[in-house]
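Reopening this ticket.

The earlier resolution said the output was attached, but the attachment link was broken on my side. Pasting everything inline this time so it's all in one place.
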Amino acid sequence: MSNQSNQTGTSEEFLVVMRGPSAVMFKPDEQLSVRNLPSEFGPLDIVYTTRYLNRAPDVTVPGQLWIEIRGKVHTLAEALEPFANSALTILPILSLSANASIGEPDIELGFDNTANITERDYFQSYIPPERDIPHPGRGIDVPDTLTLLEAIGAHPHSERLLRGANQYRLALQSWRLGKETLSLAHLWMAAEAITKAKVRVECETRGITEPDLATELGIEREQYSGKRLEQAVRKKLLLKGDNEVYSKAKEASDGFEHGYLNYGAVRELSRDVRLRMAEYVRIAILEMCELDSAIFSKLTSDPFDEPLGHWPIVKYLRGKLIGLGEELAAPGNAYPFIKWSFSLKTAKWEGSKFNIEMTENLTPEIAEGIGFQAQSFEAWQAG
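Inline output:
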């Protein structure tokens, strides 16, 4: 029986599969592999990739992010959540590297993958299939991301950098029009998470103490405190001395957290500085990783210099209803309506961008004697 080896205390190989929404995409036959990742149960092997879906004849489109985790434990119950939690620790680095959103993946499968046995424990969770609605996406640079992963893992302040990167990932999850407040709140928390690391890196680089660093940043000796130093480092080093970004981001964060500003005011402040705040925070983390100049330049240039959220493409149709009559809707309908569908024509990668060409199909459902005259069609990326 499959449980016989478990009863003797030996480990079995288990495999856990996760998937979830992501604007970070891997090209076909491309993956990022992390081997021997330490965990409380021993080393794990994790593979990140994109699964591809056939949506039309000769048209294959990227689906969700797919994560496969392998490791040796005694039971399936020991594998499911611990394996998943280990895989989640890498997501902030993928998101930071591509500057694109990654949502929360779910466990879909888990099973005993041990060789030469005849009975295996198996688990499956229902996750809805991917929708046909197109989403923006960006290809990730796998070699540079592996370099970034190694740099953060080896950094003496890796825990703080990871915390900052995860807050940055959470900011990108809200990267769309109307969600500026949540994005900025996470960006401010990201800046707070990496501040102490920046203080220590600056002291080590300059060969000075923290009070000396405070003096160099304009704080008088008699006014020195750790809190004042951190504020100065955030403003002058992390945010590159951008007074507008610092003051508006701090005011929006404090007003949102403590509730002394109305939501409209917080959103207005957030909207003014969100993009610059994101750029400063991401560059600060990349700078502390001390990447090769060519890799740093690539990760901060087009297309990776622009944050990318993960929301459906927004489409608008504008036109006129033509004809006389008080009843505009088709029989059985409450309102005049244009039945809207689309079909995929082509889908292909061009560099780090995935481009889709679609045909829009519009069928008016309106009253007899009423016509529809289309005037414009718009497609927008919600960001």
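Reporter confirms the inline version is readable. The CA atoms of residues 24 and 217 lie 38 Å apart. The longest strand covers residues 59-73.
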